[in-house]
Description:
This protein is an alpha+beta fold and 84 residues long. The protein has one domain: Histidine kinase-like ATPase, C-terminal domain (Heat Shock Protein 90, 2-Layer Sandwich), CATH 3.30.565.10. It has one helix and four strands. The protein has one helix at 40-53, and strands at residues 10-17, 20-27, 58-63, 69-76. A hairpin with a 2-residue loop joins strand 1 and strand 2 (20-27). The chain starts with 9 loop residues before the first strand and ends in an 8-residue tail after the last strand. 1% of the residues are buried. The mean pLDDT is 84.
Amino acid sequence: MAHREAPSKVEVRAWCEGDQLVMEVLDDGVGATPKPGFGMGLANTPARLECLYGEAQALVIEVLPGGGTRVRVSLPLMLVQRDE
């Protein structure tokens, strides 16, 4: 998106899906697929999620057919019960 002259659009969504919290970020950029070694944070994120949540998590980065990128993270929904 940094190379565009026109304004860009970024959309952030979050919702519950069963026992998962799903967070999604979409943009209307050129839709470049991340390359290995591109950005330390992006390279570390899958390993950190795996360490924290095991098989109960998912990270999907996809280029959209009409342009843009969607990043979706699913994490286990943990509700805290409080004694009243």
